[in-house]
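FIELD: query
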Amino acid sequence: MEVVDFIVNSANAALKQEFGKGLTDEGVHILEPFVGTGTFITRLLQTGLITPEDLQRKYTQELHANEILLLAYYIAAINIEETYHELAGGDYVPFNGIVLTDTFQMNEHDDKLGLGIFEDNSDRGKAQKGKDITVIFGNPPYSAGQKSQNDNNKNLAYPSLDERIRSTYAKHSTATNKNSLYGSEIRALKWASERIGNRGIIAYVTNGSFIDSNSRDGLRKCLVDEFSSIYCFNLRGNGRTSGETCRKEGHPLFAAHGGKGGSLTPIAILLLIKNPDRPKAKQIFYHDIGDYLTRDQKLETIAKLTSITGIDWQEITPNDAHDWINQRDPAFDNFIALGDKKGNETKTIFDLYSIGVKTNRDSWVYNFSINLLTKNMNKMIDFYNEEVERYKKRLKIEIGVDNFVDGDATKISWSRDLKQDLKKGNHRSFKKDSICIGQYRPFCKQRMYFNKYFNNDVGLIPKLFPKEDLGNSVICIPGIGGTRDFTVFMSNTIPDCNFFISASQCFPLYHYEKREKTDQTNLFEQGEGYSKKENIPDAILKEFQQVYNDTNLTKEDIFYYVYGILHSPEYKTRFAADLKKNVTPYSLRWGFLGIQ
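FIELD: result
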């Protein structure tokens, strides 16, 4: 209740501050688009912010709610009606402001509101669409869709809404993978921003990842462009971190208590204001609730603050990279990058690098026992081939492969590529020479089945470790956007994608090219059919030799020197934010700082 009351009070305070009105005033239409069991509206009624003389009008004309789940819809309606009845007395008055609908579907071009089952419900939905909404508040759903291809539970598509996200939040994001921008909490922001038009207030308690996530940089830019005032109250509580970082985050606010469920995501209260009479936001009003707090301590703090008027806000000016907190050091942009796949850099320390192997089926392709690994893979491959035959014999029934395959996780772990293989009728067989040593986690090597058909994404690893007897060393660093402190590890075997939890990036000393049979060069190289190539360019070697005035420096020296620099406490401390948000650049200047 503390969070709900804070949001309701803050919406009222912001409304008075910006527009000279309160939630009680006539013409202020309030919408809770994901009403659940009706907590926000019932608390609004109970707080007394709606005066007795305005209560009937507000209840019957200016309160609106949507819910997609039938049971929650009925519970919310009863809760809101009972609360009003306790306050107003008299005859029981049904709450006609609630609509059974999918909020995101309401503004789609096909206009399928999902309302047609009940005529009264359809009329209420159409009436709500015609209202000018002033305030939207609530707790948007957090959805990441299916956890694996076995689930067959993909996110619903909302073509119009998603296209508007694509042309704004995604367009301005520098992230490579932008799938998370189509999660429910992001859709809720875009939908609400458009629903209030050019004037109004949005007040959400939501997933706090947007505050510092790499993939949300475009979202942060667009929020600054769209709104005249932004208040962000960071409640922290990222339960997916570990060690000291996790302890500093404090308890997750919505974690389960005494049972399963709950959420380990960081939480934030976000209040956004559109006032056409004010300039767009140049600063963010930001407040961090603090380190090492329990859930009860956080709730107590929120209750004491009451609303946005009770907070001593920190004013933040976003940088050019659209960072709000943990802003990057401008000097970092002048460094030589370790690698580049986008063609933006004129020179890099390494010619190529790769993500670690993403298997999508770790429990099948990794094992400490070579015998158990062989048994597991044979079992899964046999079942896959049975499914191929079963799909062929489906009597020409038109059925999608997702709905056809057996998703029993004790028999197989599906991926999109493996399903496409099945659809094409491709059989697979166990390959003994696919078994090798893999670097599953730091200081934890296991036997692995390294095979492009049963590893979801092998990246460029086949160029780094084409055969087990062809040696190599790779510098492994966490991928962009990791939640843990930057660290570095060196491996002489195939690294896993989740080596550092986030998508590990691997920079090799060498890479290998397959030789054509007519190619007689590099015959002295170990490994029949492959040529070993140095992965550090000649231009970099020459530059190092000039900077250090030493022509005896080799590319291998540079490789180990870079590894040492990445271990430097000074480097990791000064550029902590940059190291989480960039594929690690490196600077020749560090040699002049006494790091030899």
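FIELD: remark
Residues 328-358+457-596 form one domain.
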